[in-house]
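User: Hi! Is it possible to get a structure for several chains at once, not just one? Here's what I have:
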Amino acid sequence: MKVSIIGGGGRVGSNAAYALQCAGLVNEIALVDANVDVAAGEALDLLHGSSLAGDQRIYATDNKGVADSDIICITAGLRRKPDESRLDLINRNVTLYKGILDSLRSVNVRKDAVFVVVSNPVDILTRLNIEYLSWPEKQVLGLGTVLDTTRFRSLIAAARGLPPTQVDALILGEHGDTMTPIWSSATAAGMALTKLLTPPQQADIFSRTQKSGAEVIRLKGGAGYAVGLSIARVIHSIALDQKLILPVSSRINGAYGIRKVCLSLPTVVGRHGVEGVLEPELWPKEIAGLTASARTLEETWTKISGR
Ligand SMILES: NC(=O)c1ccc[n+]([C@@H]2O[C@H](COP(=O)([O-])OP(=O)(O)OC[C@H]3O[C@@H](n4cnc5c(N)ncnc54)[C@H](O)[C@@H]3O)[C@@H](O)[C@H]2O)c1
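Assistant: Yes, the chains can be modeled jointly so their relative placement is included. Here is the combined structure:
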C-alpha cells in the first residue's frame, strides 16, 4: 500500500507521514513538495527512525513518483492567517490546487487511486478534485470535519474529566464557519452528553472547537499533530478496508435534500474510498446547520467556477 503526500514537506503533510510511520500499517510513504529540500529532509528524518518504528519505505520523490500510488493525499497549500476564514483562502489555493491536478494528469496516476484532500478550503477543493480531473466521485474524499470532530470530543472530555476515546460526538457540514455540532446523538460511554453538560457548557465547548484552528495558528503557527492523526485515521480505513464511519467530506447526492456540494456526513470509508453516506435522524436545527453549510459552499463554488 503506497501513500504519497503532496505537500509532504509542510507541517500538516510531515505530521501525517509521522502518524502513518508510528502506526506502521502502510508499507510505502512518498513525500512530494515544491520545496524539494524540505521534503528530502523530512523523509530522511523519518527514515532515520525506521529501525525503531517499522519496515516501511519512506522517501522523497517528484510528481512522477506519485503515479503508482494507491492513495494520494494532498496537503499542499497556503496556511490560513489568523482571523482569515477558510473560505477566504480560496482564491489563493484554487489556482495552486489546479496546478497540482494538472501535473498529476500529466504523469498518469493509477485510475483506481483514492484521493484524500486536506488543503483548504477542503470541501471546495474536494469538489474541484472530482470535477477538474473527472475522477470517480467515490474515489475522492476530503478530511472534512474529521479534525473538528476529534477536537470537539477531546475538548468535551477535558471539560468533564472523561476518557476522550469514550466520547462519541460529531461535527458535520462544512469544515469552516458553518460547521454544525451534533448534540442529538452525542454520548460518553452510553450517557447522553446533553444530560452531562448544561446548554451554556455545550455552547462554550462548541465555540472553542470552532475557534481551535485559529487558536493553534496564533499559538504555534499551524495545526500539526491532531490533523496528522486525523489524516492517518482516514488513510488506514482505506488501506485496511476498515469501513469506518467517519465525517469525511464527499459529494452529497440527496441526503437531507443536499446535492452537488461536498461536505461532511457520516461516511463509510473503505478500500475504494467512499462506500456509503449515512443519513441519521437529526434535530431540525442540526439539519438547518447542514443546509446552511451546503448553501455557503454552493455560493463559493459559483464564485470560483467563474474564474
Ligand atoms: N482540512 C483540515 O482539517 C486542515 C487542517 C490544517 C491545515 N489544513 C490545510 O493544509 C494546508 C497545509 O498546511 P500546512 O500548515 O502544512 O502549511 P505549510 O506551509 O507548512 O505546508 C504547505 C506545503 O505545501 C508545499 N507546496 C506549496 N505549493 C505546492 C505545490 N504546487 N506542490 C507541492 N507542494 C507545494 C509548500 O512548499 C509547503 O511545504 C493548508 O491549506 C491548510 O489550510 C487543513
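The domain at 2-142 is CATH 3.40.50.720 (Rossmann fold). The first helix runs from residue 11 to 23.

User: Great, thank you!
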